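Worked example 3. Consider a protein that binds nicotinamide-adenine-dinucleotide.
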Amino acid sequence: MSIKRILVTGGAGFVGSHLCERLVAQGHDVICLDNFFTSQKFNVEHLLDNRNFELIRHDVTHPLWLEVDEIYNLACPAAPGHYQYNPIKTMKTSVMGAINVLGMAKRCNAKVLQASTSEVYGDPDVHPQPESYRGNVNPIGTRACYDEGKRAAETLFFDYNRSNGVNIRVIRIFNTYGPRMHPYDGRVVSNFIRQAIEGDEITIFGDGSQTRSFCYVDDLVEGIIRMMNGPDEFIGPVNLGNPNEFTIKQLAEQVVELVGGGAGFVHKPLPEDDPTQRQPDISLAKAKLDGWEPTIQLAEGLKKTIEYFRSINFDDFRAPTPNY
Ligand code: NAD
Ligand code: UDP
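Given these inputs, the predicted complex is written out as C-alpha cells:
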C-alpha cells in the first residue's frame, strides 16, 4: 500500500479522532486540523508522539493551503446543542468549509470526502431512507443551519465534480456513537450514559417513541475508509449506518440495564422538528463497498462506550465556549 498525505478536518472530534487513529496505524502521513469548537486535544493526545501525525489549529471557514493526496472533511459541529449554539457559524462551516476544501482539492488534485448526514432527509416520510429519497427538511427551523448547510455542501461537492472534475466522495452518516463522544454534547447516547453513571434521571424527550438506528464508531470508520478507497466511478452519496432501529425509550432502558442503578426516567418536551423515525437503507453501501455492513450491535457497542465514560473525569470537559 502506498503512503498518502491525508488531511482530516474536524480530526480531533469524536469520529475524526478514530479515523486519524486508523490512518496513522496504516502508516499514512496524517494532518489533523481542528478549531476545537466541540472537541479537545484530549481526543488525539495519544497520537501526538507519532512521527506520521501532525495537529493544526485552524478554522475551515478560512482558506487552507496544504499539499495533500486525500481530504476527509469532517469539520462541523454535529450534536443539536452544539450546532444550534451559533447557527450562522454552523452554516458557514458547512458551506465555506466545503468551498475551501474543494478549492484545495482542485489545486492539489486531491480526492475529497464529505461527511454528510442522515439529516439531509429531515423528518423522513419514506422509511427506511434510501439515497434516492430527497428528504423532508424544514428550511427555516432550528435544525436548518445544520441540515441545509450539509445539503448545500453536497451541492457544492457535486458541482465541483461536474464543473472542475474534482474527485469526490459523499457519505451520509446516521447516528453514530462510541468512546470519545463529548460527555456534554447533549446527544442521546452520551446524555443517557452520563446520566446513568452519575445517578441522575434519564431525560427522555417526548414520549420516547421516536426512533434512531445506532452505529458503533469502528463500523462507521471502516465504511468511511472503504468509500474513500473505492473505485472513482462510485462517488455516492452513500448511507453509512446501522439499520437496527430502536425507540429512544428502548435505548434508555438498555443503558440503565447496562450501567445499573439510575434515578428513573423523566420526560422533557420534544425539541422542534425532531425526526420521528430514522433508519438507513444500506443496500447501496453493501453492494458498492465490498459487502460493508456494521458488525457491532448495540449492547456490545454500549458496553465499550460505558467503559470509556467510566474512565474519564466529566469535569475535564466543557461545553462550547460563550466567547466562540
Ligand atoms: P464532533 O463535534 O465530535 O466533531 C466535529 C469536529 O469538527 C470537532 O472536533 C470540532 O471542533 C470541529 N470543528 C467544528 N467546526 C469547525 C471549524 N469551523 N473549523 C475546524 N474544525 C471545526 O462530531 P462528530 O460526531 O465527530 O461528527 C464528525 C462529522 O460527521 C461532522 O461533519 C458531522 O456532521 C458528521 N456526522 C456525524 C454523525 C454522528 O452521529 N456522529 C452523524 C451524521 C454526520
Ligand atoms: N433525546 C432524548 N434525550 C436526550 C437527548 C436526546 O430523548 O437527553 C432524543 C432526541 O429528542 C432525539 C433522539 O434522542 O429524538 C436523538 O437525539 P440526538 O441529539 O442524539 O440526535 P439526532 O436528533 O440528531 O438524531
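Take a moment to read the result before moving on. The domain at 5-177+217-243+274-295 is CATH 3.40.50.720 (Rossmann fold). Residues 9-10, 12-16, 34-39, 59-61, 74-78, 82, 93, 115, 117, 173, 175-176 surround nicotinamide-adenine-dinucleotide (ligand 1) (CB under 6 Å).
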